[in-house]
Write a structure and sequence with these properties.
5 helices, 7-stranded mixed beta sheet
C-alpha cells in the first residue's frame, strides 16, 4: 500500500479511527472522491452529507456516486460548509472530512478561504460526537493557500487540549510547500 498522496494517507488514518456505518460529512465535496470514500465507510446503515457551493462539484459527485452504486448513501447540498449545522443536530456526526483549496480543474478564484474554513471547522466540531474525528487536508500556495493554511493552523493550536486531540502530519522531505494532513479527535 503506497500512501504517498495526502488523500490516501488521510483516508487510511481516518479509517483507523472512525467506525464504519456512521454519519459522516464531506465539508468540501469537490469532485466527489472523499464523498465516495465516506459512502464506502457508511455502508448500508450510515449516511453522508456532502457540501459544496459549486454546481460542477455536485454534478461530478452525483455522477461518481451513481457510477459506483452508492448514490443512495449520500445527501448532496449546494451550500457552504459554514452551514452544515442546518442539516444535522449537534454531536451527531462520527466523522468530518475537509479537503481545502479549489475544485481540481475548476476556477481557482472559487477556492476555500481562511475565514470561512475556520468558521466551518468550528461548526464541524459542534457537530462531532465524542470520539468523533475531523480530517483536514491543508494545502498552501496559490493566491490564498498560505493565508488559509496559517489561519487553520492557528485555530488548531488554540483548541482546548482537554476537549480535543490535534495531530498534525507533514511530508517532511517534500519540496514546494507540500500539503499537510491533520486530525482532530473530540475527547
Amino acid at each position: 500500500m503506497n500512501l504517498y498522496q495526502i488523500t490516501q494517507w488521510s483516508h487510511e488514518l481516518f479509517r483507523l479511527q472512525v467506525q464504519e456505518g456512521g454519519i459522516y460529512i464531506d465539508a468540501t465535496m469537490g469532485k466527489g472522491r472523499d464523498t465516495l470514500f465516506l459512502c464506502e465507510m457508511a455502508k448500508e446503515t450510515g449516511k453522508v452529507l456532502a457540501f459544496d457551493i459549486q454546481e460542477a462539484a455536485l454534478s461530478a459527485t452525483d455522477r461518481l456516486l451513481r457510477e459506483q452504486g452508492v448514490r443512495n448513501r449520500a445527501e448532496l447540498y449546494r451550500d457552504s460548509h459554514v452551514h452544515m449545522d442546518r442539516y444535522l443536530p449537534p454531536e451527531s456526526a462520527d466523522g468530518i472530512y475537509f479537503n481545502f483549496g479549489y475544485l481540481p480543474g475548476g476556477d481557482h478564484s472559487l477556492a476555500t478561504r481562511g475565514e470561512t474554513s475556520v468558521k466551518a471547522m468550528d461548526v464541524g466540531l459542534s457537530l462531532l460526537k465524542k470520539k468523533g474525528v475531523m480530517a483536514l487536508c491543508i494545502y498552501s500556495g496559490g493566491d490564498t493557500g498560505f493565508e488559509e493554511r496559517d489561519m487553520i493552523l492557528k485555530y488548531l493550536k488554540q483548541l482546548d487540549e482537554k476537549k480535543y486531540l490535534v495531530i498534525l502530519n507533514c511530508f517532511y522531505n517534500r519540496q514546494n510547500n507540500p500539503p499537510m494532513p491533520a486530525f482532530v479527535v473530540k475527547k
